[in-house]
From TrEMBL:
<dbReference type="Pfam" id="PF01156">
    <property type="entry name" value="IU_nuc_hydro"/>
</dbReference>
<dbReference type="GO" id="GO:0006152">
    <property type="term" value="P:purine nucleoside catabolic process"/>
</dbReference>
<dbReference type="InterPro" id="IPR036452">
    <property type="entry name" value="Ribo_hydro-like"/>
</dbReference>
<feature type="domain" description="Inosine/uridine-preferring nucleoside hydrolase">
    <location>
        <begin position="7"/>
        <end position="281"/>
    </location>
</feature>
<dbReference type="InterPro" id="IPR023186">
    <property type="entry name" value="IUNH"/>
</dbReference>
<protein>
    <submittedName>
        <fullName>Purine nucleosidase</fullName>
    </submittedName>
</protein>
<dbReference type="InterPro" id="IPR001910">
    <property type="entry name" value="Inosine/uridine_hydrolase_dom"/>
</dbReference>
<keyword id="KW-0378">Hydrolase</keyword>
<keyword id="KW-0326">Glycosidase</keyword>
<dbReference type="GO" id="GO:0005829">
    <property type="term" value="C:cytosol"/>
</dbReference>
<dbReference type="GO" id="GO:0008477">
    <property type="term" value="F:purine nucleosidase activity"/>
</dbReference>
Length: 315
């Protein structure tokens, strides 16, 4: 379904940058991109997105600045220990273009009305903009084909707490609103993204593939430093790119049951946990009326190789 119109919502750090490259390389019809605070501020994420899209030959895609703060909290600051102070590993890119005047939530609503029933949404940061768009237009779910999110964890530990994944933890109230809405949601969480890896050999090969590849490889140095003690070797997890590949259909999950999903919004030790009800696994996850949440639990191996091949096609 890569020929469909797309809205991308992101907090452009390093794995978001890889995702932009994948979407461009695969020819995704990006109608607009919204930024949200997460890896860095929404304004900083928009700046990174504009500069990266220009580098990759797509300065035509409009970029909107989205929510700076989560719905019921304040932005806690840049995750510089993961993504560097500027969100892209300290790599400096020429500043090209400016964000559009509308907000990310307004952009999403507008695009949904321009492409009713066809617009696909890929959200790889906190879900604040999607929740704000739902407030702007409660009929939005009927206009959107589906939503794919990178976030959550079903059967594995979290990465910002024992149980919570960062994108959900950053705005659990918004995440619950997205799961409550009447649109199909595919959750691509840590169960699969932590197992999808970019190795040092991938990074070296990417560095010699062209200007875009060299810039992305340079960003990965900081990301690898963060992940080396987590994964035990110089490498990184491919969170956002894997979600994009699943959305595009270039990676087909081998296990992705449709089950109930809730979010812990209580503010206690479980804050931001995705509560994925897998109790029907012992009878093969039979269809249940009214369910629209798909959780990806298993994918084929080898995504790092496929991502390298795609990114090597960038200008």
């Amino acid at each position: 379904m890569s020929g469909a119109p797309w809205y991308l919502d992101c907090d452009t750090g390093i794995d978001d940058a890889l995702t932009l490259g994948l979407l461009v390389a695969e020819g995704a019809d990006l109608k607009g991109i919204g930024s949200v605070s997460g890896n860095l501020s929404a304004a900083g994420g928009a700046r990174n997105t504009l500069d990266l899209m220009a580098l990759m030959g797509r300065p035509d895609v409009p970029v909107a600045v989205g929510a700076h703060d989560p719905l019921d909290d304040v932005f806690h600051g840049v995750a510089d220990f993961v993504h560097g102070a500027n969100g892209i590993g300290g790599v400096e890119l020429p500043h090209v273009g400016e964000p559009v005047a509308e907000s990310a939530a307004e952009m999403l609503v507008r695009l949904a009305h321009e492409h009713p029933g066809a617009l696909r949404v890929l959200a790889i940061g906190p879900l604040t903009n999607l929740a704000l768009a739902l407030r702007l237009d409660p009929d939005l779910p009927s206009l959107v084909a589906d939503v794919v999110i990178m976030g959550g964890a079903a059967q594995v530990p979290g990465n910002v707490s024992a149980v919570a994944e960062a994108n959900i933890w950053n705005d659990p109230i918004a995440a619950q609103a997205v799961f409550d809405a009447a649109w199909p949601v595919t959750m691509v969480g840590l169960d699969v993204t932590m197992l999808a890896r970019f190795e040092e050999t991938h990074r070296v090969d990417l560095a010699s593939s062209g200007a875009s590849g060299a810039a992305l490889a340079a960003m990965l140095g900081v990301y690898f430093e963060y992940y080396t003690p987590v994964l035990g070797r110089p490498s990184c997890a491919l969170h956002d790119p894997l979600a994009a590949a699943i959305a595009l259909g270039t990676v087909v999950p081998t296990s992705a049951p449709v089950v109930p999903i809730e979010v812990d919004t209580t503010g206690g030790p479980g804050h931001g946990q995705t509560l994925v009800d897998l109790r029907s696994r012992f009878i093969g996850y039979p269809p249940q009326p009214g369910l629209r949440h798909r959780v990806v639990l298993e994918v084929p191996e080898g995504f790092g190789d496929a991502l390298l091949e795609a990114l090597s096609r960038l200008p």
